[in-house]
Design a protein that fits this description.
With about 625 residues, this protein is mainly α. It is about 65% helix and about 0% strand. It is built from 32 helices and no strands. It is globular, with a radius of gyration of 28 Å.
Length: about 625
């Protein structure tokens, strides 16, 4: 049954998960640039449409660059050795493509030193310094850049933020007011200018400046949220409440950031009942969000919360965070990282930006710095729980499984009603093939569920895998069936259970229907198409098996099991030469030891009548 487990792991790596944090989906990191976010993430106040528009504005007029990962450390340096400005530039681009921003910045700085008048080199070096969080170095280059290109938005904004840090609010406002409102500056310039004006005590001018965002389609939430923050900071309670309410009502599904800000406002005004009513209403559609639960707990305690934005400097941090969050898309990932760095340069303890930056760094493989940021989230923060879960995931990615399990056990003890830590512990143990221990962790998680919801299908599925792999098939089968009862059209579960039945020679007709349904739902999943081909093979319909297995190999050409299956089917229909080719290919793909042995025997002896339906049983 080792093949079934291998197939299950591959299927699960592509399937959704209802747990917060890692769940059945496994490793977050390095899979794709857009992170799979848990419910307790640090989302932008912007909706999806506005985020897409912001990315388009950011890309407008930009020179195409290689789209590397955003990490600051890579496995090795580029092979290129620069001997000229052009060589250093190419080495920098190669390093960035590999996700090594540290070497990219070093090579680009070398290119700039060799050709100091090259404005493109200057701009690239400046931005790479920003992405690394080398703010002082970025400031130094920003001054050179605005002399060479006075219209550069990012360089001017960086200098404006530095002026704000030193209390030069009027200078910062004037700098941003002088920028042309084009591309990304259509959004960033009014935001920064408004907060600079508020820092200078000019609230009316600040609110008037924000109103210019009204002309940019899709940014009403951002405008109203920041107007609420500014009016709130200025002590204009009625105005602040009106803006907060507008931010909440601006979209069909309100941003939790807007909900959180308004609830915080109500609580500070002594309107605890209004705050809790607002949060409870949001809770109806987000029942499992720990961040929300912790916020409700804090307000219910009667403790007066600290203002979300207690001063203009934090307001600028909020603005940088909101823009950076919206830019977290494939083509603007590095720019998003630059805005997150700027946010934390304005307010190093800005928790939501710490968590967002940590996610980006972890996704890019920069585990050490990611852990620093996860660990910096204070216990009192509503985001602490999520930060600790993600820290555990990063520790596991580092190969520090025991340390990760300690974090999860601590969380499970601190939050005795939450299933998440135990479910994640089960996932980690299952992935480490410690199946018996995984079952115990999953049992604990299931015991904490209370009312079983459709979204719990993935927990029963994960436990079913661990049970099957630990030799407890009756319980495993029950969990797979329970998972399908909760969510009948989950392709991964349909396939896993159907394939398991086929492999055991049980319920073949029912198994076939499950796998056929899985193929309908995910017709381009090579593993699921392979399962269907294998059903036909086990039924003796070898011609039909060949058709499906050829399709499966097209979809997943580098999978040894699928290539092996196709070889078997070819043999059965008399295509002996092609069968041996597929077996050799499967062997070259470095399969598990048990399959290596079987492939060697097939290459030597072929298939016999006696092995007609059991080639892969172990």
């Amino acid at each position: 049954m080792g093949e079934v487990f291998a197939r299950g792991l591959r299927i699960r790596s592509e399937s959704p998960c209802s747990h917060e944090a890692t769940g059945v989906r496994g490793r977050r990191r390095r899979r794709r640039l857009v992170l799979i976010r848990s419910k307790d993430g640090a989302p932008s106040a912007l909706g999806a449409a506005a985020a897409l528009m912001l990315a388009a504005l950011a890309l407008a007029g930009c020179v195409a660059r290689p789209n590397g990962a955003v990490g600051s450390v890579a496995a090795g340096q580029p092979d290129l050795v620069p001997h000229s400005a052009a060589g250093a530039y190419l080495a920098a681009r190669e390093a960035e493509q590999q996700g090594d921003l540290g070497n990219a910045a070093s090579y680009m700085a070398e290119a700039l030193a060799l050709d100091p008048g090259n404005v493109d080199f200057l701009r690239d070096t400046f931005q790479l310094y920003l992405a690394q969080g080398r703010i002082a170095d970025a400031d130094r280059l920003a001054r050179r850049l605005v002399q060479a290109d006075p219209r550069d938005n990012l360089a001017n904004m960086t200098l404006a933020l530095e002026e704000a840090k030193s209390g030069q609010w009027n200078q910062a406002a004037e700098r941003m007011a002088g920028l042309p409102r084009e591309r990304l500056a259509m959004v960033t310039a009014p935001l920064v200018e408004a907060w600079a004006l508020e820092g200078a005590g000019k609230t009316d001018a600040a609110l008037d400046t924000l109103s210019r965002l009204s002309s940019v389609r899709g940014f009403a939430v951002l405008r109203d949220l920041h107007a609420g923050f500014i009016a709130d900071l200025a002590g204009r309670a009625e105005t602040a409440e009106a803006y907060y309410k507008k931010a909440i009502a601006a979209e069909g599904v309100p941003s939790f950031r807007a909900i959180e800000a308004c609830a915080n406002f109500y609580a500070r005004q002594g309107r605890t009942a209004d705050a809790l009513a607002l949060l409870d209403k949001f809770k109806d559609g987000n029942p499992d969000t720990v961040r929300l639960a912790e916020t409700i707990k804090l307000i219910s305690s009667g403790t007066k919360p600290v203002a979300e934005v207690p001063n203009a400097r934090v307001g600028l941090a909020e603005a940088m965070f909101d823009v950076g969050s919206a830019l977290r898309q494939e083509d603007t990932e590095r720019l998003s990282l630059e805005f997150m760095r700027l946010s934390l340069s304005m307010s190093p303890d800005f928790t939501i930006a710490q968590l967002a930056l940590a996610d980006m760094l972890s996704n890019a493989g920069d585990d050490a710095e990611a852990l620093d940021y996860y660990n910096s989230v204070p216990r009192a923060s509503p985001l602490y729980f999520s930060a600790r879960l993600r820290a555990a995931d990063t520790l596991r990615d580092q190969g520090r499984l025991d340390d990760a399990l300690k974090v999860l056990k601590s969380l499970a003890a601190e939050w005795p009603q939450r299933a998440d830590p135990l479910a994640t512990e089960g996932d980690f143990l299952r992935m480490a093939e410690r199946f018996g221990e995984a079952v115990k962790a999953y049992d604990g998680a299931v015991a904490r569920l209370g009312t079983i919801k459709p979204s719990d299908w993935s927990l029963f599925y994960a436990r079913g895998v661990a049970l099957e792999r630990s030799g407890q098939w009756p319980r495993a089968e029950a969990d797979f069936l329970r998972s399908l009862k909760l969510s009948p059209d989950q392709p991964s579960v349909l396939n896993y259970l159907g394939y398991s039945w086929v492999d055991r020679g049980e319920h073949l007709e029912r198994a076939k229907k499950l796998i056929e349904r899985a193929v309908e739902l995910k017709p381009d999943d090579g593993y699921i198409v392979d399962s269907l081909g294998w059903v036909y093979y086990r039924e003796g319909d070898y011609q039909r098996a060949v058709t499906d297995l050829e399709r499966a190999v097209e979809l997943k050409p580098d999978d040894p099991v699928i290539n092996d299956h196709l070889g078997d089917a070819y043999w059965r229909v008399g295509r002996v030469t092609e069968a041996r080719f597929q077996w050799r290919r499967a062997l070259a793909l470095k399969p598990e030891p048990s399959l290596q042995t079987q492939l060697g025997q097939k290459l030597q002896h072929g298939l016999t009548t006696q092995t007609k339906t059991g080639e892969h049983d172990s």
